[in-house]
Amino acid sequence: MEKKLTDALGRPLHDLRISVTDRCNFRCRYCMPEEMYGPDYPFLPREKLLTFEEITRLVRIFSSLGVTKIRITGGEPLLRKDLPQLIRMIASIPSVKDIALTTNGVLLKKQATLLKKAGLERINVSLDTLNNDLFTRLNSRKYRVEQVLEGIEAAARAGLRVKINMVVMKGVNDGEIVSIARHFRGSGHILRFIEFMDVGNSNGWNLKQVISMEEIVSRIHHEMPVEPMKPNYFGEVASRFRYQGSDEEFGVISSITAPFCSSCTRARLSSDGYLYTCLFASTGTNLVDPLRSGASDESIKQLIEEIWQQRTDRYSEDRSLQTGKQKGEKIEMSYIGG
Ligand code: SAM
Ligand code: SF4
Ligand code: SF4
């Protein structure tokens, strides 16, 4: 049997997150603020994007190195033309056991059934507020909360398992922690609160704007008593909690106050074919040139293997909590995907 690939800190490679576009129809303040991502922003030209064939070839190579879980993300992945076709191509790779997608949800109503038929199993929909005034200021001036909620319902009707992601920012939407928890309790969709992170360089992150996992859970516990649950598997990013006396759960992704780098098994592929070994990386490895210049699968596999073996990333654990200081220039999340 082949030796299991692990990085320099002993972490295996299990997951690949693939950004299929750097564009988005939202301008979330914490990700692609309108002032920075205006009409003149130099998004990647189409020919720079990996084709579906190139992505599928890479997934096949990654899966030969131990990757079994794929997440499609962006930018907004549902803006990528014919996305179900890519899902179908990836789903046909036997060693891929799980395909999920992260979306802002507004295009989901139209596409949910097609995505499910293509082989998608799970979907994460981002929703930070149920209030349209705040939604306009925080996420999008073009769309409304109802369109996201309709997307969520369409996904559930199509048979997709749905999780909801809420990024919590102090003084912005933290007043909705309990009301959103109530809204999704009993819906069958698992809500996950995400601590506001210092990804990229453009969101003006400041530790003072972070509401900790402890605070989130205590606010909910005050209204609806909860208890912690065990993780489902090694490397699960969310800490799980259950409303006492029920099997309804929610999660918290605590990248700031309780980092989970020691079990991070995720690699990331940007839409133009660069491999990143951390969400907070500043440089990636060019896979597109080898792909487009006739390199064999075996040599691309070796390249990825070398990169993973050298991996020492543990940005969140290294981040100085005392000062809340960010370290160095980083790539933007809309480019690399969440
Ligand atoms: N456009 C899709 C969406 O919003 O779901 C997929 C890409 S988005 C970059 C992936 C996830 O990252 C979303 O759930 C979003 O809320 C989260 N995200 C973006 N910027 C963040 C930040 N600064 N802190 C925490 N989460 C963030
Ligand atoms: Fe777009 Fe998602 Fe970033 Fe919001 S979080 S701007 S929806 S990529
Ligand atoms: Fe993984 Fe980097 Fe996040 Fe740590 S900071 S959990 S290494 S992506």
UniProtKB/TrEMBL annotation:
<dbReference type="GO" id="GO:0046872">
    <property type="term" value="F:metal ion binding"/>
</dbReference>
<keyword id="KW-0547">Nucleotide-binding</keyword>
<feature type="binding site">
    <location>
        <position position="278"/>
    </location>
    <ligand>
        <name>[4Fe-4S] cluster 2</name>
    </ligand>
</feature>
<comment type="function">
    <text>Catalyzes the cyclization of GTP to (8S)-3',8-cyclo-7,8-dihydroguanosine 5'-triphosphate.</text>
</comment>
<feature type="binding site">
    <location>
        <position position="126"/>
    </location>
    <ligand>
        <name>S-adenosyl-L-methionine</name>
    </ligand>
</feature>
<keyword id="KW-0342">GTP-binding</keyword>
<feature type="binding site">
    <location>
        <begin position="266"/>
        <end position="268"/>
    </location>
    <ligand>
        <name>GTP</name>
    </ligand>
</feature>
<feature type="binding site">
    <location>
        <position position="28"/>
    </location>
    <ligand>
        <name>[4Fe-4S] cluster 1</name>
    </ligand>
</feature>
<keyword id="KW-0949">S-adenosyl-L-methionine</keyword>
<feature type="binding site">
    <location>
        <position position="71"/>
    </location>
    <ligand>
        <name>GTP</name>
    </ligand>
</feature>
<keyword id="KW-0501">Molybdenum cofactor biosynthesis</keyword>
<dbReference type="GO" id="GO:0006777">
    <property type="term" value="P:Mo-molybdopterin cofactor biosynthetic process"/>
</dbReference>
<dbReference type="InterPro" id="IPR007197">
    <property type="entry name" value="rSAM"/>
</dbReference>
<feature type="binding site">
    <location>
        <position position="17"/>
    </location>
    <ligand>
        <name>GTP</name>
    </ligand>
</feature>
<comment type="similarity">
    <text>Belongs to the radical SAM superfamily. MoaA family.</text>
</comment>
<dbReference type="InterPro" id="IPR040064">
    <property type="entry name" value="MoaA-like"/>
</dbReference>
<feature type="binding site">
    <location>
        <position position="163"/>
    </location>
    <ligand>
        <name>GTP</name>
    </ligand>
</feature>
<feature type="binding site">
    <location>
        <position position="261"/>
    </location>
    <ligand>
        <name>[4Fe-4S] cluster 2</name>
    </ligand>
</feature>
<feature type="binding site">
    <location>
        <position position="264"/>
    </location>
    <ligand>
        <name>[4Fe-4S] cluster 2</name>
    </ligand>
</feature>
<dbReference type="InterPro" id="IPR013785">
    <property type="entry name" value="Aldolase_TIM"/>
</dbReference>
<feature type="binding site">
    <location>
        <position position="75"/>
    </location>
    <ligand>
        <name>S-adenosyl-L-methionine</name>
    </ligand>
</feature>
<keyword id="KW-0408">Iron</keyword>
<dbReference type="GO" id="GO:0051539">
    <property type="term" value="F:4 iron, 4 sulfur cluster binding"/>
</dbReference>
<feature type="binding site">
    <location>
        <position position="30"/>
    </location>
    <ligand>
        <name>S-adenosyl-L-methionine</name>
    </ligand>
</feature>
<dbReference type="GO" id="GO:0061799">
    <property type="term" value="F:cyclic pyranopterin monophosphate synthase activity"/>
</dbReference>
<feature type="binding site">
    <location>
        <position position="102"/>
    </location>
    <ligand>
        <name>GTP</name>
    </ligand>
</feature>
<dbReference type="GO" id="GO:0061798">
    <property type="term" value="F:GTP 3',8'-cyclase activity"/>
</dbReference>
<dbReference type="InterPro" id="IPR058240">
    <property type="entry name" value="rSAM_sf"/>
</dbReference>
<dbReference type="GO" id="GO:0005525">
    <property type="term" value="F:GTP binding"/>
</dbReference>
<feature type="binding site">
    <location>
        <position position="197"/>
    </location>
    <ligand>
        <name>S-adenosyl-L-methionine</name>
    </ligand>
</feature>
<dbReference type="InterPro" id="IPR010505">
    <property type="entry name" value="MoaA_twitch"/>
</dbReference>
<keyword id="KW-0004">4Fe-4S</keyword>
<feature type="binding site">
    <location>
        <position position="24"/>
    </location>
    <ligand>
        <name>[4Fe-4S] cluster 1</name>
    </ligand>
</feature>
<dbReference type="InterPro" id="IPR013483">
    <property type="entry name" value="MoaA"/>
</dbReference>
<keyword id="KW-0456">Lyase</keyword>
<comment type="pathway">
    <text>Cofactor biosynthesis; molybdopterin biosynthesis.</text>
</comment>
<dbReference type="InterPro" id="IPR050105">
    <property type="entry name" value="MoCo_biosynth_MoaA/MoaC"/>
</dbReference>
<feature type="binding site">
    <location>
        <position position="31"/>
    </location>
    <ligand>
        <name>[4Fe-4S] cluster 1</name>
    </ligand>
</feature>
<feature type="domain" description="Radical SAM core">
    <location>
        <begin position="8"/>
        <end position="227"/>
    </location>
</feature>
<dbReference type="InterPro" id="IPR000385">
    <property type="entry name" value="MoaA_NifB_PqqE_Fe-S-bd_CS"/>
</dbReference>
<comment type="subunit">
    <text>Monomer and homodimer.</text>
</comment>
<dbReference type="InterPro" id="IPR006638">
    <property type="entry name" value="Elp3/MiaA/NifB-like_rSAM"/>
</dbReference>
